[in-house]
Structures are given as C-alpha cells and as structure tokens.
Fold:
Amino acid sequence: MITIQDSLRLGLIKFKARKVRSVLSMVMFAFGVVSILIFLIGVSSIRSILWEAYPDRYQTYFAAINWSMSVVGEIKSTDLAENIHIPLSIPSVPEFKSMYGDKYKIKGIYKKTVLVGPTVMLKDFEGKGDLNNNRQSSVENNYSIVSIDPYLSKESVLGGYSFENLYNGRVPILLNPAYADAMLLNNELQNFFMQDRSFESFDTRFSEKLGDIHKKLYKYIGQEVTVSVGLNGSEVLSFQGLIVGYAGSIQPFQIGNDLFGLNYSTWGTVGAIIPEWALSVNTQIGTLFSQAKKQDIVYIVEFDSAKKRDVFVDDMTNLQNKNVLSPNGRCDSDGVRCFAPPASNEESFTASDNGFSNETIDNLSFHYYVYPLKSVKEYFEDILNSIQYLVICVTSLLLIVAIAFVNMNVFKILADSKKEIGIFRAIGAQKIDIVKIFMSYIFIVLAGGFIAGLVLAVAINIVLSLLFGDTIYYLLAAGSSQVSVSKPLFVFVGFPIVEVTVFFIILMSMGFLAGLFPVLISSRNNVVNALRSE
Amino acid sequence: MFSSDSDQLGRCNSNHVVEPKFSDTVDQEQNNVSKIIELRSVYKKYGKIKQEVVVLQNINLNIYTGEIVALVGPSGSGKSTLLNLIGGLDQPDSGDVIVDGRNLGGLNDNELSVFRNQTIGFVFQFFYLQPYLTAQENVEIPLVFRGESRAVRSQKARRVLEQVGLSARISYLPNQLSGGQVQRVAIARALVNSPKIILADEPTGNLDMNTGTEIINLLKQINANLHTTMVIVTHDLNVAKHAHRVIEISDGKIV
Structure:
C-alpha cells in the first residue's frame, strides 16, 4: 500500500501535470477564503488592541478613580497652600483595609513601584506657551514638565516611592491635552448645558473633538522626554521620562456651574484651583495607573453595586425626568449614579449607593462617575458581532461556490486520468492507493488555496490598518470617550489562531467531502475498460 | 529446455490442452517443469443478454515456468482478453484461471492488486509511462504501491535499468527517450518486482522492426537469465517465431 508521503508526491505530480486547471482551482478557493479571513483577522486585531490585550488596565482605571477620590478626602478649602498637604500616596494594605475594607473588596494587588505624585503639565505642544510666568520653558525635543504649584515638596513627589526601571530607566509620562483642545471640549460641554440640550449632537461633536485630541497626542507616544519638576520654588527635580500614553479619558466634572474650571488653563496639574485639581487627580492618577503596566500597590476593587451593572443607557429623557443630567448621557436605569451638574451652587446631590464618594465642599457636593469599560466593550462587541454574522453569511456563499468549482475540477481531472488509474491498478495499485493519490491532490489544491488566501488576508489587513487604522481608532476612542491606550492602534497585532485553525479544519473537511465521492467512484472503475479509454 | 525451433505450435493432447513441444535433447526427467499458468474451461463474454459476444470459449491451456508463449490471432480473436484473465485484470464468466498455484477467481479486488504487483509484470503496446516522472521514477512505481522505502526503491530501480541497458538514462523523462528506450523502461518497470510472469500485449506494436527485434531479444535474454515466464500477444509472426511456443486463437478458441 502506498505511503502518505508517496501519495502526496504523486498528488503533487498530478498537480503539475494539470497545472493550469489546478492553479485555477486553488485561486478560486483562495478568493473564497480571503473574504472571510480578512474580516476574522481584522476583528481580532481590533479586539486584541481595544481590550483583550490589556484587561488589567480597565480594572485598574476603574479602581484607581475611586480610591483616589476617597484618599483625597474632603476638600475643605480652595486655599492652594492647603491642598498640597493632602497626601497622594497609596496606603499600605492594612491601611487600605482599615479605611475602605467595609466598602471595597480587594480583588488584586500589584506590587511594583511607579511614580505617583502630582501630575504635571507638559508644555503646550502647539507652541502656544505656558500659561503663567512660573513655568519653565522647554528646550526643543526636551519637554519641561513643570508644576505650577510652588509649594510642592519633594517628599510629596518622591516620598515613599521609588523610580523603578519600568521603561529602561524612564518614568512613564502621560500627556495631557493642550489647553486649546481642552477648551474645545469645555465649549462643547458648555454648549450642551447652557444652550443645546440635544444629547445626540453633543455626543457626536464631543466625540469627534476628543478623537482629534487623541489623534494629536498619540503620535508622541514612545518619545523620550526630560522631565523637570519645579519643587518649592527653585529646586528642580529632573528625570528621564518616556511618553507612554495620554489622558484620553475625560471625566466631565463639575463643581457648581463651573465645568472643568478651565479658566485657569491648568488642565491636568496639581495645585491648581480645586475643581481642576480634583479633576486632574481623579483623571491622571487613574490613567497613570492604567497606562503603566506595573503599578504600585493598586487596589483593584469591586463596587458592590456596580460590578454587575451596565450603567450605559441612552435614554436622556429618563435622565431628564429625574432631573439628572449627564454630559455624556450615560447613567444607570435608576438615574442614581449619574453625573449631574447641580442646578445652582446651592444645590447638592447625594449618592444613595455605595461605591461613590459623596463629598461636600463648601455646601457643594458632587458625584463622580466611573464608566465601567465593560459597557464600552459590550457596545463594540455588539457592533462587531452583528457585522461578523453578516459577513460570514455572505462569504460562506462565496466559499460554497469555490468548493463547487474545486469539485468540478476534480471530476474533470479524474475523467482525464481514467487510463492512468487503469495502469496503476494493472501494476498493483489497490483502490485505496488511488484514493490516497487523488485525495492528496485535492489536499494540495485546498491547502495551497488556504495558505494563499491567508497570506493575502494578512497583507490586506496590514495595508488597511496602515491606511485606515488611525481613522478607525479615532472613531472608536472618541466614541467611547473612555478608552485610553498608549500605543498606536491597528497596526496588525491580532491574529486569531483559534478561529483560523477552526476555519481551516472546516474548509478542508468540506473540500475533502466534496472530492471524495468522485474519487471513490473512479477507484472502482473496471480496469480493462479504463485501459481501453482514450 | 524449451525449443526455439521454427515449429513452435504446441500440440493438443487428448484432453484438448495445449502442451509445449519439448526439445528432443531434453531428458525426459526434465519434462517435470511446473505449470505456472493453468486455464480450465474458461469462458468469457461481454455485453448484455441478447447482445452478448462470446470472446473466449472453453479455453484449456497450460503454460510452464520459464516458457515464452506467443498468442497470435486476428484482431478480436480474444488474445488480449486471455492476457487480461491471466493477469487478473478481468474475471472469466466460467472456468478457472490458476496462476502460480492460486485460483484467481477466489481473490478479492485488493488481493488481485497485490497478486499483480508481486507476481505479474505488464508490458503494454503504448508503454504507458508517467510523462512527468523520470525513467527511474517510472520504474519505481510498482515498488511505491508495494510500500517499499525510498532507498530500496532506488536501488532496485537502478539495478533493473542497468539490466535493460539504460543505466545512463535514469534521470531522463519519457519524452527525452527513443521509442525503444521507452519500452525498455516499461520492461524494467515490469521486472522491478521480480515477477514470475511477464505479460506483454503487443510490446513491439509501436516500434519499428529493428527496435522491435531489440526488444524481443531483450525479453529473451531476461527469460534466459531469470527464467521468467512470458506470455506475449502479437500480430507479428516475426515476433512469434522467437517464442518457445505459439498458440493461435481464433474466434475465442485455441486452434
């Protein structure tokens, strides 16, 4: 009986003997394959970049937002000097447990060190200069990062922490949007609350502008910078930093009517006026944690009320009825955990569920809201799944046509090989030998077509991602408003090995089954008649 | 042992079985050569009822080890059919075909394939070599179906190609060889499994006279060296005269 290797060899010879027809079959099959694989690979890339590759990020982000606010504690006054004394350090495990053990369940602890401290504002990348005279200017290609807080102490920056060589000795740095960009966002929010209460149009414009900010900032990722932190007036702390990401997520936050409080253009800085400071601590520490892969004792906590809840709703009417509004329109169905600006400085809201800090500042209270990225993920998953099913249906038809073509080709080749089969039988081939030879031929056509289709699909994905990856990323990042990633997206990173393997097995099985019947018939032909055939 | 005189026609004995004519110089004791092919009351017809054609009728034939037997007769006389029955390519409608002690009627399809691979070597009029395989690769094909390893196949193929005088052409494709060389490759392919019987259907039918003579001389040489039994179907009496025995078939009967 013929061995598998010899049957493959003879199958290959059969392929060469009918080169044109065989290659045509292979190409047809490849086209059927590539149409599905393009989509499978593309979706896999999107998924792996958006959330599958970095699941910890979102948990970290989620948790850090909350405890940082809690750690900050009550903001008693708007006095700048007092603010700097509020520790920004992360409590030890026992401290955390004693402070928050009844509120938060610790899910995980990361034990690497990272710089945690006051965030600093990078020089405006658009070259518009700093906003007050205290800032140090930067040297080209070496950005000075300064703090406007003249009272910031070295200890508060470094105390209790050490620089760890996370990125070859460089400290991870997050970029903040430029002042002008932040103002654009603020303007949108102002418009929404003060004039145009149409959530849909606001959401679109806000997302577009946020996407533009993402677009500007992400290209700096990977650049090395020299960070100079002004401390206590004249002292400067310098260190090498690596831009690993940017504060792409924005928590609309309001104290009174002053959204963002950007009048002082102190976006992302510590030691600024209270709203901005609170916002910046909230946002920056959270995203700093999320960007750096190895965090200092970051507690991943679960919110009792939030862990299973999808707090994403679109129904602004519902929110309005409850006199609760969210700039982003996202709120849970009870309308409780919504971010809402109070109608006046005097009015306050209190959170009724745990998991949200409810602080009162000079008769003002505020909520803050965390968007569980689970909802973002599900939102995009729904879109991807819908598209996926449609694409699979359409491309399956193409595949069936391709397999039918291969099958027709096999019929023709078997008809042409009748005498050859007769000769093989005459010199001692068994029926199974004939089956092996021709099934090997079919395997070569199908496998060759699949590999060609796979290579083509990967190449097309790479080209598409290079051409349109940025656009897709901006749309997704802007649309989500919460995604904060630290590297360029959509340069083909995701390869769905499992899906491709399953797809390969299914295709090969279908192809084999389609070709097996004619091969079996041919192997049983009468030998004498076969020898007499033309 | 077997005579190669001009009078090659075997004699029918009292049982209507064609027997060889032994050389007068052969000792009577040497008459005990074994039968390697035996046909008993073989009938073969083709076609459906009312349209059937009787191709072979009541064939009784013994062929002995080491004989060269030529089957002659007009077209449609049943020569090739008889060859196919001996080679296990076809089955008689009645009667027995016993080759090398085995009744072919009792073998299933796979057993017949193995039998052909190990016992029979076929040589065809139109050679039937694989055009995309070299001479050596063509010769190896029967060994491929036998499951032999690549090294063994190569060694055996080279040896038989040397025996047929083509050791310098082992890497040539069939379209690079002359007609006679191609037929030599085909003969080598038939010999590579060391068969006991060579069945040749018009082996010189597609060759010129000189080349045909070369091929017949080669077959005779193989017969002399290896004692391979040969049954050759031919129209050509010049070919038949080289056989030890000539059997004439007409209208499906041995005359």
